[in-house]
Specification:
The chain is an alpha/beta fold and 242 residues long. Helices cover 32% and strands 15% of the residues. It contains nine helices and eleven strands. It has an eight-stranded mixed sheet. It has a three-stranded mixed sheet with strand order 7-6-9, covered by helices on one side. Strand 2 and strand 3 form a beta hairpin. Helix 2 crosses helix 4. The longest helix has 16 residues. The relative contact order is 0.16.
Length: 242
């Protein structure tokens, strides 16, 4: 078992043992939902980076649902990745959702109902929120192992939708926070700038470099079939065929 997989298992089991894991259960194989996810979202809300942001990109996982609802209630534009990027990205703008539908719109099903598809080259993101299995105090991040969050970031960079200074924030439980240097990072892994837990905010001053875009040598034909957005972006980069 790899170091990363051992860390994931340790976090998943630790949340379950402590009784702070929340639906959907079990936590294994997921970005784990946790007790206090709403409080962590409120910590994020107090950040100057959030207050300044007009367009917030957020992952579709359960622990970040309070973040997505908060973004909508605060009148900001929400851009959401669909699960496994199979349906690309969705955008929900202020005014698109009736007040009574804001909570529903923060769910995956509701986002499909109230949002509309958007291409990454059609948006400019001010803040990116990611889900995590584990994070370290120096900004290392561990997802569930499929690489979708890192790919989302690479796509947004490739399209100019966000830049090297765009803040990347995660909301997690305290049990998901590890000491600096605990998470092995590669050149393809995206670090986080800020960690928000129910109890505190950690500014990581991360030493890890961000990827500069998509490494097309790692993109397989299966990935292109499963994620039409990726295939469309590759074709866009290549230009029109004759």
């Amino acid at each position: 078992m790899s170091v990363k997989e051992e860390l994931r298992r340790k976090i998943w089991e630790g949340l379950m043992r402590a009784g702070v894991a929340r639906f959907p259960l079990p936590t294994y194989g997921r970005i784990p939902n946790f007790e206090g996810a709403g409080e962590a979202a409120l910590r994020l809300r107090g950040l100057r980076e959030y207050r300044r942001a007009e367009v917030v990109f957020c992952n579709p996982d359960s622990p970040q649902r309070p973040v997505r609802e908060m973004v909508l209630r605060d009148g900001k534009t929400l851009v959401m990745a669909t699960p496994r990027l199979r349906k690309g990205l969705l955008i929900l703008r202020p005014g698109d959702v009736p007040r009574r539908g804001l909570r529903e719109a923060s769910t995956i099903r509701g986002a499909f109902r109230f949002g509309r598809p958007v291409r990454p080259w059609e948006v400019e993101v001010d803040l990116k929120v990611v889900g995590s299995v584990a994070v370290s105090e120096d900004g290392g991040r561990l997802g569930k192992g499929h690489g979708y969050s890192d790919l989302e970031y690479a796509i947004l960079v490739e399209c100019g939708a966000l830049g090297p200074e765009t803040p990347i924030i995660t909301t997690v439980h305290e049990l998901q926070v590890l000491p600096a240097g605990s998470i092995p990072m590669t050149e393809h892994d995206v670090p986080v700038d800020i960690i928000a837990t129910p109890e505190r905010v950690i500014r990581t001053d991360t030493p890890y470099a961000r990827p500069r875009g998509i490494n097309w040598s790692l993109v397989t034909e299966d990935m292109l079939r499963e994620m039409p957005l990726l295939a469309e972006l590759r074709q866009k980069k290549r230009g029109p065929t004759r």
